[in-house]
Design goal:
With 163 residues, the chain is an all-alpha fold. It has one domain. Helix content is 77%, strand content 0%. The chain is built from five helices and no strands. α1 runs antiparallel to α2. It is globular and about 45 Å long. The termini are far apart.
């Protein structure tokens, strides 16, 4: 019995420590004014947010899960906007765009995994977050790999040589 109480106390302490670390990383993310630093902070912050969402999901607190993922989506938006502002040419400065795209893809997977175990009545906010993250991912991919021409008839099919 005493061992179970000690284990519960340690789990509680770990949760508080994780909460403090999450708050600290969020504050650091909010203060970052360079896109590269903000994206690196987002990667660390995202991992902690995903862990917090997993813990909340295990406890059945899907309201908290939704709030965590909404905050993650908002952080992704902030990082993306700053990146577009500071490095508008994704072709010449693709590193930040690539890092952010990989992070967003991970976020999409985390939300989709959570949707699988979420009750039907609390899914709508998570589905909105998933949709928003997919739209951001699509925008990142479009910036990284723009079409050569907006007119599909002018783009040579794969395998054909250009005239």
């Amino acid at each position: 019995m005493a061992i179970l109480m000690i284990a519960a106390a340690l789990t509680c302490c770990d949760a508080f420590a994780a909460g403090d670390k999450l708050k600290e990383l969020q504050e650091h993310f909010d203060r970052a004014n360079h896109a590269g630093a903000k994206i690196k902070d987002l990667q660390k912050l995202g991992a902690l947010e995903f862990e917090a969402a997993t813990q909340a999901s295990k406890m059945g607190d899907f309201i908290a899960v939704g709030l965590i993922f909404e905050k993650y989506r908002d952080n992704v938006r902030q990082a993306f906007e700053l990146l577009k502002k500071q490095e508008p040419d994704a072709d010449r400065h693709s590193g930040g765009y690539r890092q952010l795209e990989l992070e967003v893809r991970q976020g999409i997977r985390e939300v989709e995994d959570t949707l699988l175990v979420t009750a039907e009545d609390v899914r709508p906010p998570l589905e909105i977050v998933r949709k928003d993250l997919i739209e951001t991912d699509d925008a990142l991919i479009h910036l990284l790999f723009p079409r050569r021409s907006k007119d599909p008839e002018k783009v040579p099919p794969a395998g054909e040589a250009k005239p």
